[in-house]
Amino acid sequence: MKKLVLTTLFAAATAATLSAASFAACAGCHGANGEKAALGKSAIIKGWDEAKTIAALKGYKDGSYGGAMKGVMKGQVARLSDADIADLAKQIAAFK
């Protein structure tokens, strides 16, 4: 029973860490709450809804979206799965 509880706690902590870390990679340029124009060139993403963020990230990934930061962002999102993109979109939408 102790193993089951510990395993469950470890899995939950790992999932929370991965989820929290996913925006951490973005925060360096976009700010802790998405309040910055990344490198002074991007749109401020704070306040974007989930659908807008998902469309932008998928567009960066397939090359159909983006302006000045298109090349930088394509590299950033290349490794993201659809689940990762959805998770990031939820986090960004929470920044009010």
Provide a descriptive summary of the structure in words.
- This protein has 96 residues and is mostly helical.
- The chain has a single domain (2-93), classed as Cytochrome c-like domain (Cytochrome Bc1 Complex, Chain D, domain 2, Orthogonal Bundle), CATH 1.10.760.10.
- The protein contains 4 helices and no strands.
- 15% of the residues are buried.
The number of strands is 0
| Structural domain tally | 1
**Could you describe the largest sheet, including whether it forms a barrel?**
none
User: SSE string, helix = H, strand = E?
Assistant: HHHH
Signal peptide: 1-27
Keywords: Electron transport, Heme, Iron, Metal-binding, Signal, Transport
Domain Cytochrome c: 14-96
Pfam families: Cytochrom_C
Pick out its properties.
96 residues; mainly alpha; Cytochrome Bc1 Complex, Chain D, domain 2; 4 helices; globular; disordered N terminus
Summarize the structure.
The protein is mostly helical and 96 residues long. It is 65% helix and 0% strand.
